[in-house]
């Protein structure tokens, strides 16, 4: 049922076409929501949460994915505030809020006092895209990983996640769940790495993909090997393989303060198209 005040309701399978039209307004920025819709059909039991839609004159104009991740789609600041007011009627269940900086900030301004202090807020995360050939030579030793690689790859994934997020993904009994996620990405053909002497020297994964775009995450080089060009050449190889086999545009977002990573992506040919923000609990 529509909220009589704000025109907001929970979306379901009958809304899928309208929702995909909405994500299609910027299919690269909205790749997470597009992927989630296509893989769950907007069925709450598969979403593990809900997707809210805001309607104006019968047309879906904005949406909010509310699961482990809270991500808004084509939301203005006003839409974000409306979603936030609705979110305040329930206990916080999300672990991360992320997306375009402006609506994330507008949402947070409303829920901040009710949802508690976040563990960290990253307000400047350039969103990058590449839709052509990489500008540097791809590393020919970067390849798709296989299940045989899992025992070597998993510690590198844990190290990357701990360094990036600040919390080990395998703590508190989470090791099996995280290992399952790494295995899933391998099975999908979304995990890429270069190995030397049973050691990962570069790795990256596709986190989400649609017919329009793929979003890369987990880019990592061991600390003692950084500054040698492994990241740029490795990402060039990932871009080449992803554009060939998965989606025509490759995207990612990076912390604004991570100057070496931003320089590596620029060398590959990524261009900045937006600014994201992430709030972590």
From TrEMBL:
Limits of the N-acetyltransferase domain: 140-281
Residue ranges of coiled coil: none
Protein keywords: Acyltransferase, Transferase
SUPFAM superfamilies cross-referenced by the UniProt entry: Acyl-CoA N-acyltransferases (Nat)
A molecular-function term among this protein's GO annotations: acyltransferase activity
InterPro entries: Acyl_CoA_acyltransferase, DUF4081, GNAT_dom, UCP21603_acetyltransf
EC number: 2.3.1.-
Pfam families reported in the protein's UniProt record: Acetyltransf_1 (PF00583), DUF4081 (PF13312)
The protein's name in its UniProt record: GNAT family N-acetyltransferase
Organism (species): Nocardioides taihuensis
């Amino acid at each position: 049922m529509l909220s009589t005040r704000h025109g907001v309701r929970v979306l379901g399978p009958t809304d899928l076409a309208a929702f995909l039209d909405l994500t299609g307004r910027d299919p690269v920025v909205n790749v997470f929501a597009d992927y989630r819709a296509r893989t769950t059909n907007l069925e709450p039991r598969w979403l593990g949460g809900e997707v809210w839609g805001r309607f104006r004159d019968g047309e879906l104009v904005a949406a909010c994915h509310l699961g482990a991740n809270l991500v808004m789609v084509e939301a203005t600041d006003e839409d974000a505030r409306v979603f936030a007011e609705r979110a305040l009627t329930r206990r916080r269940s999300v672990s991360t809020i992320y997306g375009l900086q402006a609506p994330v900030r507008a949402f947070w301004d409303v829920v901040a006092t009710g949802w508690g202090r976040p563990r960290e807020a990253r307000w400047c995360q350039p969103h990058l895209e590449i839709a052509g050939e990489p500008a540097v030579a791809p590393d020919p030793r970067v390849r798709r990983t296989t299940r045989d690689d899992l025992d070597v790859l998993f510690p590198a994934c844990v190290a990357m996640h701990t360094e990036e997020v600040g919390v080990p993904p395998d703590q508190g009994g989470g090791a099996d769940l995280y290992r399952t996620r790494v295995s899933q990405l391998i099975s999908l053909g979304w995990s890429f790495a270069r190995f030397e002497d049973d050691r990962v020297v570069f790795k990256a994964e596709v986190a989400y993909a649609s017919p329009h775009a793929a979003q890369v995450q987990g880019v990592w080089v061991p600390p003692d090997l950084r500054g040698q060009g492994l990241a740029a050449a490795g990402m060039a190889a990932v871009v080449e393989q992803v554009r060939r086999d998965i989606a025509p545009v490759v995207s990612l977002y990076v912390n604004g303060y991570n100057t070496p990573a931003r320089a590596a992506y620029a060398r590959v040919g990524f261009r900045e198209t937006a600014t994201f923000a992430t709030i972590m609990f």
